[in-house]
Amino acid sequence: MSTYLAASGRYEKMIYRRCGRSGIQLPALSLGLWHNFGGVDSYENCRAMLRRAFDLGITHFDLANNYGPPPGSAEETFGRALHADLATYRDELIISTKAGYQMWPGPYGEWGSRKYLLASLDQSLKRMGLPYVDIFYSHRPDPQTPLEETMSALDQAVRSGKALYAGISNYDPEQSARALRILRQLGTPCLIHQDSLFVRAPEQGLLDLLGVEGVGAIVFSPLAQGLLTDRYAAGVQNNSRAARGVFLKAGDVEARASQVAALKQIANARGQSLAQMALAWVLRQPAVASALIGASRVEQIEENYKALAKLSFSADELSHIDRIVLASETARS
């Protein structure tokens, strides 16, 4: 690839939204490196996606210690591309990583102990070749470790200068309320909470809590691992994620087929793809600062970006979507 020079108009059309009551604004769409940025993937394709995302004003790149495969390799890929293309623009980027899932053998290689979280952060920084990340998350609550210990590790990460902000991911409303209170008492308020809204549970109290507490929300898997796209309109294809059984199962596609088809009709009437409407639906919530998109090709990033052209919904559209989603959840319960 040739020497990279970022697009001069990259900030002209992207929407930036305040993250809670902080001084940070996040792009309405952020790029997650959960899939397709591992050591098994094409480096040049990864590099092209990162460059195109930044050209479109996507300034937030979200990682975790275990992203790959193999675990850790997404951070290595990102670090390599960062230093090749984006090092000059580091102060224009929000880079996040997380720790919580298994990374190495033994009792100190996962969950939420201070030892694991801080050791993992050091490893992540080494893999990316960075002195600090902008956001460091506890990736999941640990039922065996006192929440005070987990939150104090996030506080220490910030106070040591290895992270600028603290975040939590996959915490339910009750766990979130306790975590936010502890962090506030420690003097390191939580910046952001990461969760999925494809299931409606996070909307039942969590977003209200985050709004009251002044904490931003960022939504992962807004396209339900590709289910809310046109990829499965003709069923499960041999090379798809559902066919491989990676997080999304073929049975999930079949069980949601009628729901997805009904949602697609609404999207078509709005002049959007199903994926674009799904992103707009997530972003309709005032507490949501950003939606995390994934991609395997540059074209997917460009298509998702078009969702920002129409973020508003009519009352009838929202009511229709709710009926479809709630009817499906009732049938599955």
Please characterize this protein's 3D structure.
- It is a single chain.
- With 333 residues, the protein is of the alpha/beta class.
- It has one domain (16-233, 274-311): NADP-dependent oxidoreductase domain (TIM Barrel, Alpha-Beta Barrel).
- The chain has twelve helices and ten strands.
- It has helices spanning 43-55, 73-86, 114-128, 147-159, 173-186, 206-213, 241-244, 250-255, 257-270, 274-283, 298-305, 315-332; strands spanning 16-18, 25-27, 29-32, 60-62, 94-99, 133-138, 163-169, 190-195, 216-219, 288-293.
- The strands form two sheets. It has an eight-stranded parallel beta barrel, surrounded by six helices. Strands 1-2 form a two-stranded antiparallel ribbon.
- Strand 4 (60-62), helix 2 (73-86) and strand 5 (94-99) form a beta-alpha-beta unit.
- Helix 3 packs parallel to helix 4 (147-159).
- The longest helix has 18 residues, at 315-332.
- It is globular, with a radius of gyration of 19 Å.
- The model has no long low-confidence stretch (mean pLDDT 91).
Features:
10 strands; single chain; 333 residues; TIM Barrel; alpha/beta; two-stranded antiparallel ribbon
Distance, first to last CA:
51 Å
Based on CA atoms alone, the radius of gyration comes out at 19 Å
How many domains would you count in the coordinates?
A: 1
Q: Supply the CATH class.
A: Alpha Beta
The CATH H-level superfamily is NADP-dependent oxidoreductase domain
CATH fold-level topology: TIM Barrel
Tell me the strand order in the biggest sheet. 3-4-5-6-7-8-9-10
Number of helices: 12
Quantity of strands, as a count:
10
Average pLDDT confidence is 91
Low-confidence stretches: none
Largest sheet, in brief, is: 8 strands, parallel, barrel
| Share of residues in helices | 40-55%
* Helix-strand topology string: EEEHEHEHEHEHEHEHHHHEHH
Note the beta-strand portion.
5-15%
Which CATH-level-2 architecture? Answer: Alpha-Beta Barrel
Oligomeric status of the shown chains? Answer: single chain
